[in-house]
Amino acid sequence: MIASNSPYGGSGSPHASAHASPASTPQAAPAGMMMTASDFEATLSLYRSKAKKSNDPELLLEFARFLMQVAVAQDADKAQAYRREAYKMCKKAASTGHDEAQFLLAECYETGAYSDKNKPDYGKAFSLYSIAAKHSHPEAAYRAAVYYENGRGTSKSPPRALQFYQKAAALGHPGAMYRIGMAELHGELGMVVNPRNGTKWLKMAAAAATPEHPEALYELALLHETGIDHVVFVDYEYSVKLLREAAQLGHVMSMYRLGSYYEHGNHVAKSPQTSFSYFKAAAERGHPDSMFGVASWYLTGYSEAGVPQSDDQAFEWMKRAAESGLVKAFFALGYFYEEGIGTPGDPKLALEWYQRALAKGDKRAGPKISALKQVVAGSATMATLGRRRAQPAPPETENERERIRKARTGEDACVIM
């Protein structure tokens, strides 16, 4: 399987092929001009009339794309009608053998968004990706390879997957180059382990990296951090450079790794502000470990570096991390509820999250659970629970915060991290 944030690797949604023709569809009105409903309907009617009379795949494809763009701003029923009309235009264009139309129709089947049944049909999607691949469509070849590798819409076949990856790579597809490189490094897809060739493929993929496929930059950075005897030399400076390039292209794991580097001073000078920025960027893209990092920075703050202290923000990000399934956030969120950090103290919720932490093997939660069970049962005082952070915190809570600060600076171990 390909580890990624989308079905096809990389950090974003599947992208349009490099084969896509220049758009000559109706564009949005220039700034200061508004298209009235009657003008829009007249334009739509004109294009519809031309498309219905034509067998020109380029015109049909342009109209299909126009309809897909229009559908985005419509209510559910109208949007579905436009999508289905776009699907029919794609189907007509694809029947002429036009590779981009075949690719777009395959996407229609893959998502199910434009078909009459409104359900994905992976078998038809695979068939069309395969056909478009034979017409030298790089993204179609790549997707056919993914289908073969994962057994989606066809029988699983590593050898066939490799063939299609090789075809896509020969057409310049960075995701395919990356997959071949990883296969040679780890002996996958029926290949023999060959670090030297694998590294060469990763270098080619890194040189061709895009926002959709930045993953080779990250993997190459990891190789230069650890090295491979007689193949890859250790170079921390170059590794960090590659991570920065990947992060600029939206690669979440690179952002997280850089956030950790700048927090602890690994291979770079310590920089709380830079650490916070990278963690925040990755957290906003849904990365749980980075959410934990953001919460930790908000909890302690670092005013000298422009990192604000905010219990409310610390709680919100820790809650998101825990609800995303990050095990180490379970105990931390329990602690927040117990101490009333950024939220009213709630022993029941604290107990619940400590129990989840213990169930995942965090033994620190055991003593907490024992004490809180007594509180919940009413046999212990609530005097030290439910504190709101708007008031001065009792010494023991400030001591915990100080331990967190020391853990961040390397002076001590942390109570919640």
From TrEMBL:
<dbReference type="Pfam" id="PF08238">
    <property type="entry name" value="Sel1"/>
</dbReference>
<feature type="compositionally biased region" description="Low complexity">
    <location>
        <begin position="13"/>
        <end position="30"/>
    </location>
</feature>
<dbReference type="InterPro" id="IPR006597">
    <property type="entry name" value="Sel1-like"/>
</dbReference>
<dbReference type="InterPro" id="IPR051726">
    <property type="entry name" value="Chitin_Synth_Reg"/>
</dbReference>
<keyword id="KW-0677">Repeat</keyword>
<feature type="region of interest" description="Disordered">
    <location>
        <begin position="1"/>
        <end position="30"/>
    </location>
</feature>
<dbReference type="InterPro" id="IPR011990">
    <property type="entry name" value="TPR-like_helical_dom_sf"/>
</dbReference>
<protein>
    <recommendedName>
        <fullName>HCP-like protein</fullName>
    </recommendedName>
</protein>
